[in-house]
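INPUT
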Amino acid sequence: MNTASHKGKLFIISGPSGTGKGTICKGLLDNPNIRVSISMTTRSPRVGEVHGKHYYFVTRDEFEKTIAEGGLLEYAEVFGNYYGTPKAAVVEKLDQGKDVILEIDVQGALDAKRIYPDSVLIFILPPSLEELRARIEGRGTETEEAINLRLSKALKEMSYIDEYDYYVVNDIIDDAIARTEAIMMAEHARVSESINDLIDKFREEEQCYTHQ
Amino acid sequence: MNTASHKGKLFIISGPSGTGKGTICKGLLDNPNIRVSISMTTRSPRVGEVHGKHYYFVTRDEFEKTIAEGGLLEYAEVFGNYYGTPKAAVVEKLDQGKDVILEIDVQGALDAKRIYPDSVLIFILPPSLEELRARIEGRGTETEEAINLRLSKALKEMSYIDEYDYYVVNDIIDDAIARTEAIMMAEHARVSESINDLIDKFREEEQCYTHQ
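OUTPUT
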């Protein structure tokens, strides 16, 4: 155990569409001390979707009340439905000592970092733009024009990488997961204010010796 | 490969005597991309010690000339002999893309960080002061008084931990090595100025597409 305190950390994993951030996040969840954040949405549940597991399903009024209260780390409206990350649920898991991963787009990541500055931003990059194109083409669902638009959007998102703490090139998925896990482990080894609690514990131990 | 540039990094591993930093460093050297820095000394070579492998053996004049030229990351005089870390040899390995580990005491670590601010400081801690005492006692070579002096010195050194980047509690040696390796991997994933070279490469790729 390397933690001076047992608080979890919030890791925000984002990057352009097609870089495989979802697959990396799935790989991380094998670790029982890592939990994924659950989004709140105003869209209707699909068959099999469970409230509190896949999403928190709420009404538009409830969602807007949560926005007004500052209760969301980030949110966006997509095709008339709200999607967002409730802060309280994340903080609760962190207090339980779990790390929380939040997989969102670049805009959402930057919003969340502003609201929760202790979060750690990780940008997932493709090995090359050619490879990103190949992955999107491989899905076989998009026109050439749509693919070019996606690539332009990806480049625009990459221009925000300076605001991130870390980047991971997703060349081989297992390596990318290992690198992300290393980042999470290293972040718990950072010297921060809480280290003084640990050092104080050592000092108390010494006093016990000296006064024996 | 996750590096925007192929330059190595200098990791300075230190902490009180008895915390096992030497064993951690030995464990790290299984990785061919990690090299240990070689010290310069004025003491005479012992049987089997090879110049340029175990130490750089130099005269007192040569050592003092290197000090005067600012050629050492840190140095100290112990029982009338100089010991120090030559900067040029470290920089050469970093330029070859190797990570370099430097195992030194707390004073030397802080000196080296001042001279080479890009270095990463890692503090090795024992799981408890009691365990540190047990490890020193286990060597069976020291009086009770000498052991108490060592523990006081250890506590004094720990008071500098705020100036370090990371700490690793050496409870189980393999875990401590794994945490140190994670720190080294994560440091290569930090977003720094060199990330812009990687993003520029993506931009150039896009221009190739657009002008096809």
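end of record. The mean pLDDT of chain B is 92.
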